[in-house]
Amino acid sequence: MTELLRTEKVTKAFGGLVAVNDVDMVIDEGMILGLIGPNGAGKTTLFNCITGVYPITSGEIYFKGERISRLKQDSIVRKGLCRTFQELRIFKNLTVLQNVLIGMHTRCKGNVVDAILSLPGTVAEEKRAKEKALHYMNLLGIAERADFKAVSLPYADQRRVEVARALAAEPELLLLDEPAAGMNVRESHTLTEFIQWLNKEMKKTILLIEHNMRVVMPVAHKVTVLNMGKKIAEGTPTQVQGSKEVIEAYLGSDYVAHELGDK
After folding, report:
1. Helix (H, G, I), strand (E, B) or coil at 227
2. Fewer CB near the last or first residue (10 Å), C or N of the chain?
3. For residues 82 and 172, what is the distance between their CA atoms, to the nearest angstrom?
4. Can you state the percent helix, strand and coil of the chain, rounding each to 5?
5. From the CB of residue 213, how many other CB atoms can be counted at a distance below 10 Å?
6. Domains (range + CATH), the chain
7. Has this prediction a pTM greater than 0.85?
8. Any idea what the Cα angle at residue 126 is, between residues 121 and 132, rounded to 5°?
């Protein structure tokens, strides 16, 4: 497999608190990597380091062999990385379609003046952008609500809007931060199938943070486990679920008994 993303001894400290500590991680092209761990393990902080939200304290991050550790967020998006957030971040007073279109800003060539003057090239580009946005919205089952204000949608559908917006940026690496948050069992199952479809049919490489093990374990090719900022385990879902250290730090014996049939 071709290596897509690599972190080398990435550390992020906030004053005396080390939130991410010396983390090495590799994501190969075409892979779904699940990033799991208890609350406060440093998962979202690592996401924020990879996507330029936080400057790293030490270490390096490479994307397609190029160092991106010192780049700003917009430059990283243009390189082909896009993410959703643990805390829902949509423009609630804009329509669903407008929210998704915002995700395309790094791919559009026109500027504000062109749009105001409705120049022919800009009008054609806006039409193409709208068609593409509706395509992703249809995949996520929200196209029929294109003209609804995003704030009027149920929480799970607002999550879908955020995922559609991330896809609209056409990333090579899609980072999903707890996309199943607020979803019921049926909705989570649908999301799991969609993540698998994105990976297999749309050839998307995915880095997934998720507390819901029923979402992570069926889809992940590899799982990395953080605890107190450090990587404590890595391997296939089966290997990770059988790790004594992971069970003690995160999964718990009840999970193992229920999911693995350990009586």
Report:
1. strand
2. C
3. 8
4. 45, 25, 35
5. 17
6. 1-80+171-237 (3.40.50.300), 93-169 (no CATH)
7. no
8. 130
